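Lecture notes, continued. The same structure-token format from the folding unit now serves as the input rather than the output. Read the line below as a description of shape only.
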């Protein structure tokens, strides 16, 4: 999904499969979302993914490339008392 989003944002924010190089590409599937060449030229942000999805996708891609992400339990966080 990462390459589809990057490709789309580089091509005006729309779904972009290079149909000259591959006239029948497989759909891209991520968390139940499927985007295929049938959606060519449709706007990505707001139609298929939103900002929250991009954050989750970025974290998943980082974990895939670099290994598990470190986590900090909430009880270890400093507490601020609001007056």
């Amino acid at each position: 999904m990462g390459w589809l989003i990057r490709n789309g944002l580089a091509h005006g924010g729309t779904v972009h499969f290079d149909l000259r190089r591959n006239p029948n590409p497989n759909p891209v599937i991520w968390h139940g979302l499927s985007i295929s060449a049938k959606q060519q030229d449709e706007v990505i942000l707001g139609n298929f993914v939103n900002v929250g999805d991009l954050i989750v996708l970025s974290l998943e891609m980082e974990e895939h490339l670099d290994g598990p992400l470190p986590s900090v339990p909430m009880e270890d966080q400093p507490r601020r008392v609001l007056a």
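Point for the exam: Residues 51-66 form the longest helix (16 residues).
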